[in-house]
Write a structure and sequence with these properties.
Elements: E1 2-8, H1 17-31, E2 35-44, H2 70-80, E3 86-95, E4 99-107, E5 112-117, E6 131-139, E7 142-150, H3 158-170, E8 176-181, H4 189-195, E9 201-203, H5 204-207, E10 210-212, E11 217-218, E12 230-231, E13 234-239, E14 242-250, E15 264-271
Length: about 270
């Protein structure tokens, strides 16, 4: 069985962020995920450059990793506890006028990384700037492409972003695991675009033999101001090379402590053997 996790961490914007980082790390230590996709992974723009970048896979034209980079501190904590992850980070834009913000992937196996500019704009000062992070790796000895992303809302950039991503992924001829904050709720227009894609993807939460939880955000949070409903906008879409055993909302205060304004999604899956 392969275990994967996706979470929009909200990073340093959270109250008591260091405690929540430790809570996240302790959960990872317990579950020993094979793949982790994280969004809103931030660092202070004015921070000091880090020198200990064990197992970090850098992308061209990405800002230097600073000492308080959220994923760096997370991987250091895990390493000290005996759990090593290869990792990478794709820079999206300046967040809250203070942070470099991007998306990350952590993998137990070595990774070959690249990124795709999804947005119409490529300006770090424009929050519409979005990149997907791709990692080619192996799960149980078989090649797979992992994608971590934080997409825009429907009619606010999503359609163009998805079409660019879809076009690139169609050229790969690879099994896919797409994880992240899609900002498009289950069964709504953007979500349907994904399921109708020629990539022939499946939603883990629709096909899993065991499902827990039905939403990953609720009420009024950043990006969903004045919202009064609960939605599932954090998803795992996979190619149909995989059988999904379980798909569970986590970090909801039940299976794991709340660490962000989003809940996470934990999925157990395996290859379908032909």
């Amino acid at each position: 069985m392969v275990k994967v996790l996706t979470l929009n961490t909200h990073s340093w914007i959270e109250a008591n962020p260091l405690k929540k980082l430790v809570d996240l790390a302790e959960h990872i230590l317990k579950e020993e995920y094979d793949i982790i996709c994280l969004q809103e992974i931030n660092q202070v723009m004015s921070g000091e450059v880090a020198t200990d970048l064990s197992l970090y896979q850098a992308l061209p034209n990405t800002p230097a990793i600073h000492q308080e980079h959220y994923a760096l501190l997370l991987t250091h904590y895990l390493k000290k506890k005996g759990l090593d992850y290869y990792w990478s980070w794709a820079y999206n834009h300046i967040g809250y006028d203070f942070y470099h913000e991007g998306v990350a992937i952590l993998s137990r196996e070595p990774i070959e990384v690249s990124d795709i500019l999804l947005s119409d704009t490529d300006d770090e000062k424009d929050y519409h700037t979005r990149r997907a992070l791709l990692a080619k790796t192996k799960l149980k000895g078989k090649a797979v492409t992992i994608v971590s992303m934080h997409l825009s809302w429907f009619n606010k950039g999503f359609q163009a972003e998805w079409q660019r991503l879809e076009k690139e992924l169609l050229t790969l001829n690879s099994p896919l695991l797409l994880m992240g904050d899609f900002n498009n709720p289950t069964d709504q227009e953007g979500y349907q675009m994904i399921l109708e894609s020629p990539l022939k993807l499946q939603d883990s939460h629709k096909v899993a033999r065991q499902v827990y939880g039905d939403h990953s955000i609720k009420a009024d949070i950043d990006g969903w101001e004045n919202n009064q409903k609960a939605y599932k906008v954090d998803h795992l879409f996979s190619s149909k090379d995989f059988s999904i055993n379980s798909s569970k909302i986590t970090f909801d205060g039940s299976l794991a402590p709340v660490v962000s304004d989003h809940y996470g999604l934990s999925v157990d899956l395996d290859w379908i053997h032909n």
